Amino acid sequence: MKRREFLVGAALLAGTMGRGSAATNIPTPSADGLDRITAYFDNEVTLGRLPGAVVLVQQHGKPVYLKNFGVRDTRTGLAMTPDTIFAIHSMTKPITCLGAMMLIDEGRLALTDPVSKYVPLFADTKVGVEPEGTSKVELEPSIRPVNIEDLLRQTSGISYDYIGAPWVMQVYQAANIFEGPFNNRQFADRIAKLPLTRQPGTLWRYGHSTDVLGAVIEIISGQTLYEFLKQRILDPLGMNSTKFVLKTPEERARMARPLPSDPVLLAGERDRLDHPEWESGGGGLLSTIRLSALLADAAQWRRVRGQALPQPRRVQGHDDRSRRARLRRGARLFLFPGRRFWLWLRHRCTHRSRQCEAATGRIDRRIEMGLRKRHLFRRRSQARHGLPLDAADPERAQPHHARLQGTGLRLLS
């Protein structure tokens, strides 16, 4: 995640409260608490940590706070506006997962389908093991095939190149999986040639699982991932500014840009621009603050329910205690609070009274999760581009959520 862009995303997405029985008793955020949000972001912009931000707090489908800070691009001095476009990175994942759940609802895909049914190279995928006391990685057969549920839950054993043991990062970086042009199907083949970092279904680990899921959607639908998402989700919701590539000068002028003094974010931006042909289902979408409002507003989803929402009956049979218990046992190994990555989607598809209720959890927990993910992105970019780590900067080395203490963001839950 890009530092500036994800901080904006964390604030606007975490600070929305949807309709639903669980949200009706939440009091309106206090004026004092909202003023502290303003003070916090004003300070971030003044100190040069952010070029700008757009922050939305929405309750019961209505905005209670919407404010723009700073500029979207320091080169042009254009001010932040509600229609500014940001790279939303991993908020692409729930949209891709929703597309997969729609295919499951139609009987064209099943949670138990092995991924090798659609990407044959996964039939030969092995699991990497580093025996204790050695530095040599050994390969062993998987106890079962990676399936669609694993991709949805991030329990496939597929990783990112900045997460996991040293051997995991070394293997991923040595594979040059981002070399040259590639599409979703080709990228899925590249991932299938790498060893899994754990046996399927045994550990939640953030990685390219949703990118592979995007390739599966393409294979089943016969469309590109963007064509499928546009037809089935984005157009019905009027999300006209949500896409993988900005094609017009007007759209590109609305794009938020990194600070010119931040080499980590500039490198991350170059990574994105280097692969316009790759529609990453795990992190490639660009969108505006309106995406946040739509995720939080159940009424909007009910309006297009027949087109965009899976039916509850299709997923109720998968809400079993054994799966939840299995994920809890691995919770101590999570890199940030993410135990409900899969349960989050399932919860919304199972309980009619809580459809698309985007703020059933505590706001401070959502923001803390976003800020920890932001920190991980910085570590990844620094490692990939040979840049020094943030440890030398005491301000940035401390947990980012600690800097939110007393800002008012924790007072909105």
Describe this structure in words.
There is one protein chain. It contains 17 helices and eight strands. With 413 residues, the protein is α+β, with helices and mostly antiparallel strands. The strands form three sheets. A four-stranded mixed beta sheet has the order 1-2-3-4. Strands 5-8 form a two-stranded antiparallel ribbon. The protein has a two-stranded antiparallel ribbon with strand order 6-7. Helix 1 runs antiparallel to helix 16. It is globular and about 55 Å long.
| Strand fraction | 5-15%
Task: Enumerate the strands of the largest sheet in spatial order, edge to edge or round the barrel.
Answer: 1-2-3-4
Give the low-confidence spans: 1-22, 313-322, 324-340, 342-374, 389-413
Gross morphology = globular
Number of helices: 17
In this structure, how is the largest beta sheet organized? 4 strands, mixed
Distance between the termini: 24 Å
**Total count of strands:** 8
Mean pLDDT: 75
Helix/strand-derived category reads alpha+beta
Helix amount, in percent?
A: 40-55%
Question: Helices and strands in order, then pairings?
Answer:
Blueprint: H1 3-14, E1 16-17, H2 31-46, E2 52-59, E3 62-73, E4 78-79, E5 86-87, H3 92-105, E6 127-129, E7 138-140, H4 148-153, H5 166-174, H6 184-192, H7 209-221, H8 225-234, H9 249-253, H10 263-273, E8 286-287, H11 289-296, H12 298-303, H13 305-308, H14 321-329, H15 341-350, H16 363-384, H17 394-397
Parallel strand pairs: 1-2
Antiparallel strand pairs: 2-3, 3-4, 5-8, 6-7
Helix pairs in contact: 1-16, 3-7, 6-7
Task: Briefly characterize the structure.
With 413 residues, the chain is an alpha+beta fold. 41% of the residues lie in helices and 8% in strands. It has helices spanning 3-14, 31-46, 92-105, 148-153, 166-174, 184-192, 209-221, 225-234, 249-253, 263-273, 289-296, 298-303, 305-308, 321-329, 341-350, 363-384, 394-397; strands at residues 16-17, 52-59, 62-73, 78-79, 86-87, 127-129, 138-140, 286-287.
